[in-house]
Specification:
Blueprint (H helix, E strand, L loop, with lengths): L1 H29 L2 H31 L5 H6 L6 H6 L5 H20 L10 H21 L25 H15 L1 H12 L7 H30 L10 H26 L3 H24 L12 H24 L17 H33 L7 H23 L14 H19 L5 H32 L3 H10 L2 H21 L5 E8 L3 E4 L2 E13 L2 E12 L2 E6 L2 E5 L10 E5 L1 E4 L3 E11 L4 E10 L2 H18 L9
Antiparallel strand pairs: 1-10, 2-3, 3-4, 4-5, 4-6, 6-7, 8-9, 9-10
Helix pairs in contact: 1-2, 1-6, 2-5, 5-6, 5-7, 6-8, 7-9, 8-9, 8-11, 9-10, 9-19, 10-11, 10-13, 11-12, 13-14, 14-16, 14-18, 15-16, 16-17, 16-18, 18-19
Length: 658
């Protein structure tokens, strides 16, 4: 009964969306404000219907209606309720419904925005949002229906993929989709501005919050995806440069470029066409990312099986989303000529911004080529070639270090300078010298990996210049107000939340650079040991105490007990495990085996233990042990990026320029 109601909701939503789209077009052509209000109401109805369909599917998953194919394929009776809810995005059909639901909610926020500045562009932007919603409604209604019935009702389901039974997989897909979907709003306003009779030079101001929010959610999604890979996939790393993993980086990188480009447009009336192009490409890459996940055109441990018709529809959709507006932008390029001027690259803040954008776009292209190289080589040479991590390191490490040094330099260049005033203050050159000394000291201390030494040096350079910049602003405020001490520093920071948020984000970037610097020094070893035997890994002494088996939440788990000491000092016990998950839909099928790692860490390093196998009832066990250096600085940095984004988005009465 409820599944039929879900089907009805999706079909109704599709036809309502068709009606709303036609209404918008007629209203815009006829300049009929009354029809526009009717269409806005229709957008709200679209969101209500999508919400109803989503709620029905969640209810079916939680209650275990095994007459529905999606419920059978992704849940079972033993699955905890929280994971039954997260099964909503475990499969193709459910994840598309999640995308549609989030998009329709965003559509309501756009249509009913109280920002009076975007009233002229808003109807056309809502038309574009409705067109996008129509695509997803159509895909779900006619091709990927999550409410499809089974021929018979099953007594139980296959269960959720064990790899997805992790807290990170509850947060990661939702925040990632919020980021992907969020870029639709700036895209819609950018395209609306393109097709508007008279271009609005202030369109960037209307979309700044949308861009920052989408970028922030995408950052959190990437963070939780990396943490999930680190603790769940059992190979000791957090980023494998898998094509689907990389797909989330594409819009994150171009979105970062868009944030900087939009700021230049706002401050200098420059990079208007560039900002439009980046807004279009960023959302196009979001859709391209979900296409990569679903198409099967490249092999990925994270992807869904490809469906030819779905692939074709996505390619056509992406062509309409990206190629049509870019061609239109080219045709109207003279109307989007910059009013302002970019000064020399190394002598102005906007110039260094442009250089950083070149790096962001260059990194996007390099990662895109690497991700698609199996497809490219298969098409051009008839032989599929996959580029390994070495390619990404060779390309991205120099780009990342150059970006970090540019960031540190950009911090010290003022937006406004008096005639004859030097580009950089004197203390900037001291920071350069101090950074050079640090790199030499690191080398003398044994840090012979040049990439790591430069990464730590660039992080130090950023942090030092942030401190100098904060000190400079506090000094100026003290001269103007007479207030001193720590309170003056705090107020000079919090008086401009956009600047304060940017400081937090750039400080966070420095911390992640420190985290990345540790990777070349990681230690990895595999060891077969007998019960009671002790072996050495780095400064750690590990003693294998034996195995224990338990049955928990519908699966069995074998735990190994390993006592850990460091330089003779006991640290405690670690328990890596191997899990065995039954297929409840097909009990005769082999159990799915999954390793659950044990991690003990601090700011300096993580001890990472994997139970790889055992013999003779646990008398002998094989462990893979890694010591991963500085990795926790990456997590701290990424969390701070999210915090900085929230601070920058926080409403403020007025912006204080400096």
């Amino acid at each position: 009964m409820l599944a039929d109601l879900g089907n009805l909701a999706i079909m109704t939503g599709f036809w309502v969306t068709v009606f709303v789209l036609v209404t918008y077009v007629v209203a815009l052509v006829g300049k009929n404000d009354r029809l526009i209000k009717t269409a806005h109401t229709g957008v709200a109805i679209m969101a209500v219907i999508a919400s109803l369909a989503t709620a029905i599917l969640v209810y079916l998953l939680v209650t275990g209606d095994f007459s529905v194919r999606y419920v059978v394929e992704h849940t079972n009776r033993a699955l905890p309720v929280l994971y039954k809810i997260s099964a909503l995005w475990a499969g193709q059909e459910g994840s598309l419904l999640l995308w549609l639901w989030l998009h329709t909610i965003l559509g309501v926020l756009v249509a009913f925005s109280e920002d009076k500045r975007n009233e002229e562009l808003r109807p056309l932007a809502s038309t574009i949002m409705t067109f996008i919603a129509l695509f997803f409604y159509g895909i779900i209604a006619f091709l990927m229906n999550p409410f499809e019935r089974m021929p018979v009702t099953y007594p139980d389901g296959a269960g959720l993929n064990p790899l997805l039974q992790n807290f990170g997989m509850i947060i990661h897909p939702v925040t990632l989709y919020l980021g992907y979907v969020g870029f639709a709003a700036p895209y819609a306003f950018a395209v609306a501005n393109l097709f508007n009779k008279k271009p609005d030079p202030n369109w960037v101001k209307y979309t700044r919050s949308w861009v920052l929010a989408a970028w922030g959610f995408l950052s959190v999604g990437i963070l939780y995806g990396a943490q999930w890979a680190y603790v769940e996939l059992g190979w000791g790393g957090y980023w494998a440069w898998d094509p689907v993993e990389n797909a989330s980086l594409f819009p994150w990188l171009t979105g970062t470029a868009l944030i900087h480009s939009a700021l230049i447009h706002e401050r200098r009336k420059a990079l208007n066409a560039t900002s439009l192009m980046l807004a279009i490409i960023s959302y196009g890459l979001c859709v391209f990312g979900t296409y990569l996940t679903r198409s099967g055109v490249v092999q990925s441990v994270h992807g869904f099986p490809g469906i030819p018709l779905l692939n074709t529809l996505f390619v056509l959709f992406m062509a309409i989303l990206v190629i049509v507006p870019l061609v239109w932008l080219y045709r109207r390029r003279d109307e989007y000529a910059d009013e302002g001027q970019i000064n020399e690259f190394f002598s102005s803040k906007e110039g260094t911004f442009v250089l950083t954008n070149y790096i962001f776009v260059g990194a996007t292209l390099a990662i895109l080529v690497g991700s698609l190289f199996p497809l490219i080589s298969r098409t051009l040479m008839g032989n599929e070639i996959t580029l390994n991590i070495g390619y990404y390191n060779v390309v991205n490490v120099p780009l990342g270090i150059a970006l970090a040094f540019l960031l540190g330099a950009c911090i010290r260049i003022a937006w406004k300078r008096q005639p004859g005033e030097p580009v950089f203050p004197t203390d900037f050159y001291y920071s350069l010298g101090a950074t050079g000394v640090l790199v030499v000291v690191l080398y003398l201390m044994g840090v012979r990996h040049i990439g790591s030494a430069l990464a730590i040096g660039s992080a130090f350079f950023i942090i030092l210049n942030l401190i100098l910049d904060i000190s400079s602003h506090a000094r100026i405020r003290h001269e103007n107000t007479g207030e001193g001490g720590i309170l003056n520093v705090i107020r000079s920071l919090t008086g401009n939340r956009r600047r304060f948020g940017a400081i937090i984000v750039h400080f966070a970037v420095a911390l992640t650079m420190i985290g990345f610097a540790g990777a070349p020094f990681d230690v990895e070893t595999s060891q077969a040991v007998r019960r009671g035997e002790t072996w050495q890994v780095g400064n750690y002494e590990l003693t294998y105490q034996g195995l224990r088996e338990e049955f928990i939440h519908g699966y069995s788990a074998v735990y190994a007990t390993v006592e850990v000491s460091r330089n003779g000092k006991p640290l405690g016990v670690m328990k890596p495990e191997m899990q065995f998950h039954r297929n409840y839909l097909n009990p005769s099928a082999p159990e799915q085996q999954m390793s659950e790692v044990a991690v003990r860490g601090n700011l300096a390093e993580d001890l990472y233990i994997i139970l790889a196998g055992w013999e003779r009832g646990g008398e002998t066990a094989t462990f893979k042990v890694m010591v991963n250096y500085l990795v926790n600085w990456i997590w701290i940095g990424m969390y701070l990026i999210a915090i900085g984004t929230v601070v920058a988005l926080w409403p403020t009465k007025a912006r204080v320029e400096s």
